[in-house]
Structures are given as C-alpha cells and as structure tokens.
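Subject: Cellobiose transport system permease protein structure
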Amino acid sequence: MSSRLLSRAPQDTPGTWKSYLGLGVILLVSAFPVYWMFVIATSSDEAVMSSPPALIPGDQLMVNLREVFTMQDVFFTASLINSLIVSLAVTASTLFFCSLAGFAFAKLRFKGHNVLMFIVILTLTVPNQLGVVALFIVMGELGWNGTLLAVIAPGLVTAFGVFYMRQFIGHAIPDELVEAARIDGALTMRIYWTVVVPAIRPALAVLGLLTFVATWNDFQWPLITLNGTDYPTSMVALSDLASGNYVVYRRVLAGAFVATVPLVVLLLVGGRQLVRGIMEGALK
C-alpha cells in the first residue's frame, strides 16, 4: 500500500526550455528599469538627450555622484544616514512589538481579545492618507515635527505586522508547548523569549525585510513632517534633486542608484537567510 502511494506521489521534473525562456523574459523585463537607471547615472547630458537613447553605461558615474553628494541644498549624505537610522529603528521596534502582540492574540486568553483583534484588522482598511492631518497635529503637539522622531514614532508597530505574527504563531506553536512551559514555571515573557521567538525566526525575517524596505522607500509622511529641514530622508532628498525648473536626470538617477544599492544588498543577503530559515522551520 505504501509503495503504491509513493509511486503515485508527484516527482520533481526538470523545467522545459519554454519555462526557462519565460522566466528569462520576466527577469529581463523586471531588471531593465534598474539597468536603465544605472545607464543614465553613468552618462553625460549629451548621452541622456541623444536619440536613439544610449543603452550602454558610460564613464561619468563618479562625476555624477560627486555632484550629488556636494550639492549644498540637498544634504544627500545626511539623508542616507537618516534613512538608515529610521529604517533600523522602525524595523527593530516592529519586530518586537508585533511579535509580542501576535503572541498575546494567538496564545493568551484575555477579556476582549477578539474585539481588539477585529479593531486591528479594521485599521488595515483605512488608507494612511486619511490620518496624515491628525498625525501632523499630534506630532506638532509633541514638538516632534521636523525631527526624525516624527518619522519613527508612527511606525513603531503596524496592524499588518500584528496580524501576520498572530497568524504565524497560531499555526507554528502548539498550545501544548506553551502550557508545558507554563507548568515548568515559566512566566509569560520567559515563554515569549525562549519558546516563541526561536520558533518564529522565518516570520521575523519576512516581516523585517518588508518593514525595512517599506520604511526606506516611504516618501509621503517624511516629506510632510521634514519639509524644509536639514534632516531629510533619502526619498525626500531625491525629490529635491528632481525639483526645479530644469531637472538634471543623470544627477537624479545617480542619487536613485545610490539609494537603491542598500536595498539590493539587503535583499540578496536577507533573502538567502530567509530561505535557510524557512527550510529549517520546515525540517523541524
């Protein structure tokens, strides 16, 4: 009986040339905007305005980068540092608070937890743009407008992160494991640190990557609260590069290329760790 079931189990088959061709086309189409950005970032004004446009990278990358980093009214170096500070702070706080709240909603039973979870899910249906005015007023009352605290504070915890961690913890950690730890005398925070956190590392990796990328690419709220200050983020600095009556596209895309490099490196390194963590979780 078992041999019959094994014989009917689906086997891995090598991909055909059509599947590889389709994947190659999708890869080229997806990567072309990044390649085109690099081409313009390495070109001169004449090459940018040429017809047909240049498709081969030039030799002006260092010249364009020098112009970007030496502009007096953009503060591009400071913007990269500020984006790194904001992204790291928001990612760390999101991982801690969302995983802690997800653990509470998934494994702890307290009065009103279903109502609170419904409210958390309900906030996902509200566009962020509707709360900008109220958020700006609150940050103004706290005296945080124009500072990085105004960018960090609203992202300390997210409804998506709470819901995602609650779903993952609910399926990944058996109730019996939590009860066994409680019988052994472990308190709630001890159970969280020693039982929950090691088991949800793949989910933490996914949430951390998504949060870091979303925070780094955030533009609307930093533009509103940091407008006119010397503490912009990278996306606000890029908008300053693209403003004015005459836009120097080689300069704008050189700055965009620099702002994209950390994300590409993070996804390459973090993606490998993510796959490894998922495979470890599957084996366990």
